Amino acid sequence: MLKVVKLVAVDIDGTLTHEKPYIHLGAVKALRQLGKSVPIALVTGNPYPIAYALSKYLRPCERIAGIAENGGVVYLDNEVYITEESSEVMMEVMKLLKEIRYDRYLSEDSRFRLVDIALRIGPDEQKFLAEELSRRKLSVNITSSGYAVHIMPSGINKGKGLKMLCDRMGIDYKETAVIGDSYNDLDMFSIAGISISLPNAPEEVRRSADIVAGGPGYGYSLAIALKIVRRFIL
Questions:
Q1: How confident is the model at residue 155 (pLDDT cuts 50, 70, 90)?
Q2: N or C: fewer beta carbons within 10 Å in the chain?
């Protein structure tokens, strides 16, 4: 049973934000308060430059630590790590997207991404794309953050990114608390010492978490989740 938390990993979109992707200032205040006692890492499907900038300027704790592109990129202070080299398969994915004209759905931040590909598409388009990727036997994963659909090389996920970050920090990943709200957080939930879902998460995500925080959801409920985490900090 988890007795102490040595790192808190917090998702951004839908967790640190309002329903629309605006940072919830009350949640930032709660993060900074907790960050005086334990390191906090921001975890996101956003590209590395955005993730790093948020970590630097929101400064939830003294160290700048986080995971970007759904686990594809890990950063700690002044170091950046790519969890898996995968340029060839992602080039094949881009060829497919252009062939089926899905390149028009590329997210506006695509030019900043180092590993994954993000698209603004709905469930039906996501299903069709997953079938095409499978039919062509491309070794990738496709997942949704609720704000974008992400294509990543097989094996990359937030859980893998969390393990790498913990290794770099000298922390056992089983001594982490993770807080999230979407399907791309499930790989973190499966390895963390304690996982907390926000109430705005899909049912499957809520069921997979150890605890579902109360409140109205989003950043409002993140502050409640952080109070739960505080119980496990010495």
A1: confident
A2: N
Please compute the mean of the pLDDT values over residues 58-84 and round it to a whole number.
94
Map residue 56 onto helix, strand or coil: helix
Nearest to 177 by CA among 191, 195, 156: 195
Tell me the pLDDT band of 203, cut-offs 50, 70 and 90.
very high
Does the annotation count 11 as an active-site position? yes
Q: Which domains does the chain have, with CATH numbers?
A: 7-82+157-230 (3.40.50.1000), 87-153 (3.90.1070.10)
Query: What are 75-89's pLDDT values in tens digits?
Result: 999 999 998 766 789
Task: Give Rg (Cα) of the chain.
Answer: 17
126, 74, 129: which is closest to 98 by C-alpha? Answer: 129
Q: Given the structure tokens 């640190």, which residue do they identify?
A: 16
**Which is the catalytic residue, given 11, 13, 181, 187?**
11
Condensed to tens digits (0 to 9), the pLDDT of residues 110-137 reads 999 999 999 999 999 999 999 999 999 9
| pTM: predicted TM-score of the whole model, two decimal places | 0.91
Determine contact, residues 217/25, Cβ cutoff 8 Å.
no
- Residue showing tokens 């590395």: 48
In a 13 Å sphere around the CA of 66, the CA atoms on its Cβ side amount to 29
